[in-house]
């Protein structure tokens, strides 16, 4: 079967990757492979104990692995700023892999009062990417990888209720946040290329993978680990992330599993809805994100 797997990840010695949500699931598996290929990997996570446990696991499979903990809570823009400042001290950053996310939680709000899924999955990703752009631009070929989902296909932007103050459907809001991810990397790539930036924006999705992301599925949670039997394991779910971060890619490209309607298997070019390429929607979301976070990437429209 053709397609990209972790076996196709080339030597990454001398490179540095930041992986958000790296202590478990797809983020952990991507970090494991990158470290095994010789890269320095910053595991950007909320929980230091869990991050250290993940680093220990990587160290057992790759003795001497160059891994470090980067404190990051994407539900708090203050933490995002602090993480960006700390990461910018690295001699080089080859890729920021925006992997952290939440799925279908009860209505919850971030430190700044945003609905959690939009706040973490999109606004936190937008803010961290914007803040790290100057550092990334110092390294030729640097990338920003944004993790979306096949759920983006039913997403929309509730312009009159971005903060879920009128209504909250947890499943729809998840799809909406993933649609926002799609619009963000599409618009980011367009603006980076227009500015002549050396940084490339790329999107990916893991298909349907058995990870801790399903912890808010209620009674269905008991079946979530079984997904890995028929669909993707977490390690397989990381293949599109690894392709987007390390392989020759098309600027603004989108990658995901190529089997069973993009739910499992090796990685390759993925499909996106026409709306995910809508320049007006993308521009409007960009402007709203700047207004909500108070962080401007500084790229002209």
Structure explained in plain terms:
The protein has 301 residues and is of the alpha/beta class. It is built from nine helices and eight strands. An eight-stranded mixed beta sheet has the order 3-2-1-4-5-6-7-8, with helices on both faces. Helix 3 packs parallel to helix 4 and helix 5 packs across helix 9. The radius of gyration is 17 Å and the shape is globular. The termini are far apart.
Could you outline the blueprint of secondary structure elements for this entry?
Layout: E1 16-20, H1 25-36, E2 40-45, H2 48-61, E3 67-71, H3 77-87, E4 95-98, H4 116-136, E5 143-147, H5 170-194, E6 200-204, H6 227-230, H7 234-237, H8 239-246, E7 254-259, E8 264-269, H9 279-293
Parallel strand pairs: 1-2, 1-4, 2-3, 4-5, 5-6, 6-7
Antiparallel strand pairs: 7-8
Radius of gyration: 17 Å
The largest sheet, given as strand count, sense and whether it forms a barrel, is: 8 strands, mixed
Q: Compute the number of strand runs.
A: 8
SS class = alpha/beta
Mean pLDDT: 93
Shape: globular
Distance between the termini: 41 Å
Number of continuous helical runs: 9
Spatial order of strands in the largest sheet: 3-2-1-4-5-6-7-8
Q: Give the percentage of residues in beta strands.
A: 5-15%
Detail the poorly predicted runs. 219-228
Residues in helix, %: 25-40%
Q: Spell the H/E element sequence.
A: EHEHEHEHEHEHHHEEH
